[in-house]
From TrEMBL:
Protein name stated in the entry: FKBP12-associated protein
Start-end of Basic and acidic residues biased regions: 321-337, 346-367, 385-405
GO biological process: negative regulation of transcription by RNA polymerase II
Phylogenetic lineage: Eukaryota, Fungi, Dikarya, Ascomycota, Pezizomycotina
Record GO cellular component, one term: nucleus
Bias type Polar residues, positions: 368-379, 408-418
Name of encoding gene: FAP1
Coiled-coil parts of chain: none
SMART domains tied to this protein: R3H (SM00393)
Organism: Imshaugia aleurites
Amino acid sequence: MSGDRANKLVQEVKCNASKTSEGNTKKSLECDDECARLARNHKLAIALNIDPEAHKDDHIPYSNETLKMFRENVKWGQMQEREIRVFAADENEKRLRFKPMPPNQRAFLHSLSEDFGFDSESMDPEPHRHVAVFKTPRFVMAPMKTLAESVRIRTSAETSGAPLAETQRKLQANNEMFNGFLLTSPRFGLTLEELRADCAASLDSSPGLLYDISFLPREEIVIKARPASSSTVFSSSAIEATIKALKASLSAAIASKHLATSIQLCALDNSLNITRREMDDPANNGGWSQVAAKAAAPRMAPRQMAVGEKSVYTVLGSKLRDAKKKKEEMKKAKESEAVVDDWEEEMKKQEEAEEKAVTDAQSHKDVSNSTNENANDNEGVSKAPEGKETDAEVAKEKMQKHDLPEGSPTQLSTTAEG
């Protein structure tokens, strides 16, 4: 076995050692480009007094596209990498064919072959389309790091670098000057002309600055401040101070017209991308102006009810109760109506019921009249002894009550009896 200490290359060869000859035991492999690179790094580390153990090599010899596809299917990707490495180690093999596979897997083989320094080509139509890999003069050797090792290095770098990058982004954002306003959740149907007219009193109060109003696709509106002319010079700090002083009046105008839900300061670039928001600053609470909040929601005194005045809830409750009762009555009336098969029979029954009702009413009236007459007769008889009236006077009075003419049979019979 022969090796290279600098490049860590290993190759199996016959020993051929004997008592009289050393054979291949002291032979070494020739240095390649990777070996030369490592040798230069070693010399630089010695010159700069750098500990190689404390500074591991984090170079990744694969493209981002290769690593991305490898992460999607690690087990299958390792199998393909193993076949390509065997092909790279065999000097006699000049071409490698893979079995037919889907387009996404063929794309991974093309990308990996390019990282190794091979040429690749897709052959045959579907469903027999496959990838063929060829060795070229630009191929030197297989990368020392495997795909799995490169993925671990990349993941570690992303994990350690993410907090630092986020911190740098926040620091950079906090250093940017505010140059506009951001309106969120605008009123439905709000137009540019209407917004400009309602905010004109506030925006026109700052001389030397003009304000461009733009609608963003995510239900936001930005108002960017800029110098009125090219000859006017305004520093970023001056623009920020001006719009900060303008925010209170603009917030009150927007709240009074209900133009948007909230307003806050923001920093805008030339493409109207929001690079900084006031709500992102720790010292602010959401970015909404307290002046606008007070103007939009004034404190209302509780209303005192007059004596004898009914509450709104009482009136509504009685109306609902009456409506519900009427609905139930209509439902009962509808249920009581039955479908009649023979309408003639039903009409006959109805007529008989009406005749019976009339007969009963007439009978009740006759009985009532007869009762009244008997009562009157008894009263006349009882009064005669008290007033010491004769029978003739009683009979005469009775005939007058019944409107009978004198000399009628009733009178004669009464006189005869007397």
